[in-house]
């Protein structure tokens, strides 16, 4: 008997029929002899609808009350799912994040998990019940308030539960069959991966891949949790995300060709249209100015991704510094820099939110040359101009025009031999 933690996203529990479909999958897992703990998201677009409602009532919502509101979405879906399981003749108990022992810091809207004390969950499992937990939410001991975990919160809830309960695997269900070599909505010929390393998955998630959220992958790697990304709408075995020292599951290894067992050079191509570029024009090219600029940006709360500094113009002794931030952070960074323009001494600011980031990721890049050449050659053949370049040990990212990103991704995907024989299937259309 194994202990399996399953997570179902909003598209998986979007309506009554979907909830019953998920309940059947959970019951089938229980019938197979396994203990089951489930983390569930709010139904469909419930969270977005609640946010819209909050903004209609109060354009600036109190963070504490917003968390109270948003946490109700998962409570609805967890209770309905437990009811559906009861109707199939199995015992199920639903728990809120606080009841499940999901302890967080006091940050409303983006709380981080600091401890998990799943006493009530253990008791329910020992009594033979299926456990359903509301994802995305927790509880702060000091303030005694409900908190929400922010983007990817239900994924993170599931992984944290798997770590605390020492589960055999954490299955993350969405509307695609696993982790693909690219977003199948952008690259139809994307292939499903059987196995990906947690290191590669961190880079893919950080650079636009949306099947798994980076916080959940980080937590899984830190606590030794094996993730299996699967689809609610098919019986595909999905993709296993393996951390250091983890073995390929026998069920997967048996289906892999021997040639596929060797580490590929490139695991996937990620795309991101959620970035904006800020250029600080005419910065005095003297020591300390870059530090001043990015200190101001950091204090604004903007999260900087890529940075490029031009060569200083000999005639003026000035240079330009460009960096990318999430689109939602760009206005904060611009306001903060504008307020410090006189002190820093730059000439002007330029904001560009029509960019796209393309990233090539693969652990095999450590030991293979020519990856950069292949990437740049593929982009040149389709006439795509590169505006910025950033690299890590297993990633190369480039910034291009946003309206050229999809075509660039398809060309690069083909250039690295990642295309599959048939178009990928997306069952519900949202990726979650």
TrEMBL record:
Biochemical pathway: Amino-acid biosynthesis; L-lysine biosynthesis via DAP pathway; (S)-tetrahydrodipicolinate from L-aspartate: step 1/4; Amino-acid biosynthesis; L-methionine biosynthesis via de novo pathway; L-homoserine from L-aspartate: step 1/3; Amino-acid biosynthesis; L-threonine biosynthesis; L-threonine from L-aspartate: step 1/5
Annotated substrate binding sites: 47, 74
Enzymatic reactions: L-aspartate + ATP = 4-phospho-L-aspartate + ADP
Entry GO CC: cytosol
Keywords, sorted A to Z: Amino-acid biosynthesis, ATP-binding, Diaminopimelate biosynthesis, Kinase, Lysine biosynthesis, Nucleotide-binding, Transferase
Record flagged with keyword Kinase: yes
Amino acids binding ATP: 7-10, 180, 185, 210-211
Listed GO MF terms: aspartate kinase activity; ATP binding
Annotated GO biological process: diaminopimelate biosynthetic process; homoserine biosynthetic process; lysine biosynthetic process via diaminopimelate; threonine biosynthetic process
Domain of life the protein comes from: Bacteria
Stretches assigned to the ACT domain: 278-363
Record InterPro entries: AceGlu_kinase-like_sf, ACT-like_dom_sf, ACT_Aspartokinase, ACT_dom, AKii-LysC-BS, Asp/Glu/Uridylate_kinase, Asp_kin_monofn, Asp_kinase
Entry-linked Pfam families: AA_kinase (PF00696), ACT_9 (PF22468)
Family the UniProt entry places it in: Belongs to the aspartokinase family.
Protein name as annotated: Aspartokinase
Native source species: Microbacterium lacticum
């Amino acid at each position: 008997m194994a202990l399996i933690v399953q997570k179902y996203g909003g598209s998986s529990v979007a309506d009554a029929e979907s909830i019953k479909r998920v309940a059947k999958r959970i019951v089938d897992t229980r019938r197979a002899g396994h203990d089951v703990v489930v983390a569930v998201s709010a139904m469909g677009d419930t969270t977005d609808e609640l946010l819209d409602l909050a903004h209609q009532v109060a354009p600036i919502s109190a963070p504490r009350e917003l968390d109270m509101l948003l946490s109700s979405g998962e409570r609805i879906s967890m209770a309905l799912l437990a009811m559906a399981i009861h109707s199939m003749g199995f015992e199920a108990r639903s728990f809120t994040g606080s009841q499940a022992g999901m302890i967080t810091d006091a940050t409303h809207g983006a709380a981080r998990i600091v401890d998990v004390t799943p006493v009530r969950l253990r008791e329910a499992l020992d009594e033979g019940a299926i456990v359903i937990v509301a994802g995305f939410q927790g509880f702060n001991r000091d303030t005694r308030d409900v908190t929400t975990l922010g983007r990817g919160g239900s994924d993170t809830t599931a992984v944290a539960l798997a770590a605390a309960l020492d589960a055999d695997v954490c299955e993350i269900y969405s509307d695609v069959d696993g982790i693909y070599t690219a977003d199948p909505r952008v690259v139809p010929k994307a292939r499903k991966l059987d196995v990906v390393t947690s290191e590669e998955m961190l880079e893919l998630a950080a650079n636009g891949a949306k099947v798994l959220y980076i916080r959940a992958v980080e937590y899984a790697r830190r606590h030794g949790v094996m993730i299996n990304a699967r689809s609610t709408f098919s019986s595909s075995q999905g993709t296993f995300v393996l951390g250091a020292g983890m073995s390929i599951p026998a069920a997967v290894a048996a289906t892999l060709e021997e040639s596929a067992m060797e580490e590929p050079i490139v695991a996937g191509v990620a795309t991101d249209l959620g970035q904006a570029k800020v250029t600080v024009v005419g910065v005095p090219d003297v020591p300390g100015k870059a530090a001043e600029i990015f200190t101001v940006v950091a204090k604004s709360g903007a999260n900087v991704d890529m940075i490029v500094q031009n060569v200083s113009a000999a005639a003026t002794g000035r240079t330009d510094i460009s960096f990318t931030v999430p689109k939602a952070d760009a206005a904060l960074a611009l306001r903060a820099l504008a307020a410090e323009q006189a002190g820093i001494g730059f000439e002007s600011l330029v904001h560009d939110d029509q960019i796209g980031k393309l990233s090539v990721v693969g652990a095999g890049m450590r030991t293979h040359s020519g990856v950069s050449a292949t990437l740049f050659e593929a982009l040149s053949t389709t006439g795509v101009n590169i505006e910025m370049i950033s690299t890590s040990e297993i990633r190369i990212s480039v910034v291009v025009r946003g309206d050229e990103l999809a075509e660039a991704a398809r060309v690069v995907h083909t250039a690295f031999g990642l295309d599959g024989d048939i178009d990928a299937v997306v069952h519900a259309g949202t990726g979650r």
